[in-house]
Amino acid sequence: MEQYRKDLEAKNKEGVSLSEAGPVSLGPRLSCSHFPGAYEAISYGRGTWLFHMLRYMMQDAERRIGKYGGAASDDEPFLRALRKLRDRYEGKSFSTNELLKVFEEELPSSTWYEGHKSLSWFYDGWVNGTALPHFELQGVKYADKAGFTMITGSIAQKDAPDGLVTPVPLYAVAGGKTVPLGRVFVDGPTTSFHLSAPTGTRKVVVDPQQTLLTRAR
Question: Cα–Cα distance between 174 and 164 in angstroms, integer?
Answer without folding.
Answer: 31
